[in-house]
Amino acid sequence: MERAISRCRLVLLALVLIFTAASCEKVESRTSAKKQPKSNQHAKPIEKAIASEPLKIGFSMDTLLEERWQKDRDLFKAAVEALGAKVEILAANGDDALQIAQAETLISQGIDLLVVVPHNAEATATIVNKAHKVGIKVMAYDRLVKNANIDLYVSFDNEQVGELQAKAITELVPKGRYVYIGGASTDNNAHLFKKGVFKVLQPLIDKGDITVVFDQWSKDWTPVNAQANMEAALKANNNNIDAVIAANDATAGGVIKALSAQGLAGKIPVAGQDAELAGVQRVVDGTQTMTVYKPINALTEKAAELAVMIAKGEHIKADRKMNNGKVEVPSILLSPIAVDRQNIDQTIIADGFHSREDVYRKKQ
């Protein structure tokens, strides 16, 4: 009897142990099942979410006060968005401290690339350094940033712009007294335009055919400052001036106002550049001799394409290098086009840069 009871106890104990072991195994398998799928299930959706986020390009602009830069803004934004990326745009309107602060804002927004149109070529080196510290590359647009490790520079051949201006005017006035009205001395492009102009003028100066009787920068590129410079040139030379080369169409507008006041508009050849509507209209009217057309469509499309490539980490093959005082900057430079009364239709109007109605104002 006692043996039978002992046997029963042993059987019951064995059953309890088997049941307990089985329960523990289920709990363990349930626990591990809960842990494992969590990491595996969420890994792919996170990767997809990251991959589906569009690239973000920051665009720090010097100014939007001039018509030309409004075109750049609109066309660049459209081109970037057409490539599936986003663009955040801030303009400082000629304020160096504000441009640096705005660039810091763009950097803090987690952009993938910073594109800069510098107001002050030297001061904006600070922007480049700040971006590089957090691993963001910087592309200089149209104007070169000086003394900084810029990753890429995209623009027109600005030295060639000056050459085209000088060639057009020297064909009309091979000998005489010249005035040069420059742009902002803080803008590297202003120096490149001037370099191109004097590359053409210097041999004629050396021969004694041309004398530059006035040469002055125009602060912040404003027509008012250019007009004041031209008034000073006219006064210093008793209106005895044969030709004027102005650094852009805005400064050419100031020059022509000063000439108009003396009854000389249309009598003295004046060169500008940028193909601004007002400048092109003056070419039609005969008060401005020529302008230089820089197809902004081509520049913005190329810049957008390169910006997205850099943001993706792709390699860019640049065909030129520009020294910015610190490094040889990889550069892509597009070709400008000289425009006068004879080829406005085939260039500016054919490209849709300005409409025929706007250019001719019903003159045709």
From TrEMBL:
SUPFAM superfamilies hit by this protein: Periplasmic binding protein-like I
UniProt GO molecular function: monosaccharide binding
Main subcellular localisation: periplasm
Superkingdom to which the source organism belongs: Bacteria
Record has Cytoplasm as a keyword: no
CDD domains named among the record's database cross-references: PBP1_ABC_xylose_binding
Gene Ontology cellular component list: outer membrane-bounded periplasmic space
Keywords: Periplasm, Signal, Sugar transport, Transport
Cellular location(s): Periplasm
Residue ranges occupied by any Periplasmic binding protein domain in the UniProt entry: 57-314
Signal peptide limits: 1-23
InterPro entries (UniProt xref): Bact_Solute-Bind_Prot2, Peripla_BP_I, SBP_2_dom, XylF
BP GO annotations: D-xylose transmembrane transport
Record function comment: Involved in the high-affinity D-xylose membrane transport system. Binds with high affinity to xylose.
Protein name, per record: D-xylose-binding periplasmic protein
UniProt organism field: Neobacillus piezotolerans
Gene: xylF
